[in-house]
Amino acid sequence: MKLIIAIVQDEDSADVIEALTEEDYRVTKLATTGGFLKSGNTTLLVGIEEEKVELVIDVIRNVCRKRNETVVTPTTLGGSESGYMQQYPVQISVGGATVFVIDVDKFVKI
Ligand code: 2BA
């Protein structure tokens, strides 16, 4: 058995959970926060037989979109004493999804 850990954007989470449950995959949603943007995202846990891993990833791939976000990076100009901060908006592309697949040593439902 494998555990798929998929970090998706909040905007895609309802659709991807619906698509997974429609296909009879079981999924757990965790509310998480990205370290770089420091904004909310969603982490999905899917426990699945090894031969179905690619099918689950295909569902995630079909739903999750890339989006552009603007981050503002402060830059100090003119040295530390007399310097002033100038802020530059920078575009970054977020998503569609970051997916990890890990081995499950043991799976028990009690
Ligand atoms: P965040 O850490 O908030 O990152 C959001 C987006 O910022 C990333 O999108 C990427 O485009 C950019 N980014 C992140 N770190 C960067 C850096 N050091 N320099 C420049 N740009 C950077 P994604 O790559 O699509 O990642 C979306 C979210 O997935 C991340 O949110 C984080 O929560 C998670 N993630 C991505 N890679 C991960 C990893 N290797 N381990 C754990 N979580 C990861």
Structure notes:
This is Transcriptional regulator. The protein has a domain of 74 residues: Alpha-Beta Plaits, CATH 3.30.70. Helix 1 crosses helix 2. The longest helix has 13 residues. The chain has a four-stranded antiparallel beta sheet. It has a two-stranded antiparallel sheet with strand order 4-5. The chain contains two helices and six strands; from the N terminus they run βαββαβββ. With 110 residues, the chain is α+β, with helices and mostly antiparallel strands. It starts with a strand and ends in a 7-residue tail after the last strand. It is elongated, with a radius of gyration of 19 Å. It binds ligand 2BA. Ligand 2BA binds next to strand 5.
- Unreliable parts: none
CATH architecture label of one domain: 2-Layer Sandwich
Q: What count of helical segments does DSSP give?
A: 2
CATH class of one domain: Alpha Beta
Organism: Clostridium diolis
Protein name: Transcriptional regulator
InterPro entries: CdAMP_rec (IPR010375), N-reg_PII-like_a/b (IPR011322), N-reg_PII/ATP_PRibTrfase_C (IPR015867)
Chain-wise SSE layout:
Blueprint: E1 2-8, H1 10-22, E2 28-33, E3 40-48, H2 53-63, E4 67-77, E5 84-94, E6 97-103
Antiparallel strand pairs: 1-3, 1-6, 2-3, 4-5
Helix pairs in contact: 1-2
This protein binds ligand 2BA.
Ligand 2BA binds next to strand 5.
Task: Throw out a few tags for this protein.
110 residues, alpha+beta, Alpha-Beta Plaits, four-stranded antiparallel sheet, two-stranded antiparallel sheet, 2 helices, binds ligand 2BA
Short description:
The protein is of the alpha+beta class and 110 residues long.
